[in-house]
Amino acid sequence: MKYLFLLAFLLLFLNGTAQKSYSVTKDSTTGQAIFRGRITLDDLAQEPSFHWMAKGEKEYRPDSTIMAFLKAELPKYSLVVFMGTWCDDSHYLIPKLAKILKLTDFPMDKLVLYGVDRAKKTGGIEPEMLKVSLVPTFILFQGHLELGRIVESVNRSLEADLARIIALNQKSE
């Protein structure tokens, strides 16, 4: 039953909508824009104050050997990501994710990206349902089954950690 509910949830949110599904507030600590709700990488790239997005993506050089593996494998999966536009760890990792997804031709309809406020809220139940308490959190799914997650920081690199999750799953099949 738990997986059925999760599947229904993912199908609902993976399909997306055409309307703007996030709110923008000003961080009382830094004055930065906080995006809260379902967002896209394009939403982040189009926000003029998020200079960290374009800079981080342009400067990132992922490992080409690992990227060859991810290009063949990553598009077979779905990704749900929670991030904070106010969060330094998100500023560091989300541009890297954008670069990885572009280089692997990842289908963007298989990416669900949520902006959270400092309380880790999106305006919906998603963070509580998926037990997200730190950002960024990257959750890799195959169908309705969670295969693994990367929480707040990486062990080796974002591409290596994603590849490790996929490889571990392939060994267990």
Tell me the fraction of residues in β-strands, as a range: 15-25%
CATH H level: which superfamily? Glutaredoxin
Which percent range fits the helix content? 40-55%
Order of strands, widest sheet: 1-2-4-3-5-6
In CATH, the architecture is 3-Layer(aba) Sandwich
Number of domains: 1
Number-wise, the strands total 6
- Which runs of at least 5 residues are low in confidence (pLDDT < 50)? 10-18
Our Rg estimate from Cα atoms comes to: 15 Å
Which features characterize this protein?
single chain; 173 residues; alpha+beta; Glutaredoxin; six-stranded mixed sheet; 7 helices; 43% helix
Short description:
The protein has 173 residues and is an alpha+beta fold. Helices cover 43% and strands 21% of the residues.
Q: Can you characterise this structure?
A:
There is one protein chain. This protein is α+β, with helices and mostly antiparallel strands. The chain has one domain (2-12, 33-172): Glutaredoxin. Helix content is 43%, strand content 21%. The chain contains seven helices and six strands, in the order αββαααβαβαββα. It has helices spanning 2-15, 41-46, 51-59, 64-73, 88-103, 126-129, 158-172, and strands spanning 22-26, 33-39, 78-83, 111-115, 137-142, 145-151. A six-stranded mixed beta sheet has the order 1-2-4-3-5-6, with helices on both faces. β5 and β6 form a beta hairpin. The protein starts with a helix and ends with a helix.
